[in-house]
Amino acid sequence: MNKITGPIFAILTPFQANDQIDFTALSNYLLFLQEKGVETILTNGTPAEFPSLSIEERMALLEHCRKQFNGIVLNNVSSCCLGDCFKLIKHSENYTDALVVLPPYYYANSSEIGILSFFAKVLNKSTLPTFLYHFPKHTQNPITPKMVEILRNDYKN
Fold it and tell me: What integer pLDDT is reported at residue 136 of this predicted model?
């Protein structure tokens, strides 16, 4: 993977009036970011409304961004459903440089062992570099330094 440089832009997902992704507006947005020197984007992140998108929409969004953006693309594969995470991980292998994953965001105040188990299952499925997405305001599940240390020791990605 190329070196990730900042700033990393968690891109928005533009929509048409019929609630479909507006891929024309997205292409224009990505071109604008590239022209302004952005080298790294995060697709399907928090401002992209990923929890409101179907798995197929999230995949289509990533594919479109990979075709339209010449820089580094990170993709958020977060879901409370491990099966959906696994589908997104598999699909991402062809389109992204690295993954981003939140702890389960519906089940607030989960145990550390439960969160570690979730991340272990995700990391076992990923061949790509994977970044833990610490966003306790929304997940109610912080990623502690101890958790990061445990996962870094057990997983090389």
Answer: 64
72-76/8-10 β-pairing: unpaired
Tell me the one-letter amino acid at 138.
H
Give the span between the Cα atoms of 129 and 99, in whole angstroms.
6
Token pair in block for residue 116: 């570690």
**Residue 32: other Cβ atoms inside 10 A:** 10
pLDDT in tens, 87-125: 999 999 999 999 999 888 767 777 888 889 999 999 999
DSSP, collapsed to helix, strand or coil, labels residue 138 as: helix
Strand partners, 40: 8, 72
Q: 40 near 72, Cβ under 8 Å?
A: yes
Taking the CA of residue 120 as centre, how many other CA atoms within 13 Å lie in the half-sphere pointing to its CB? 11
- pLDDT < 70: residue spans in the chain: 1-2, 48, 106, 134, 136-137, 140
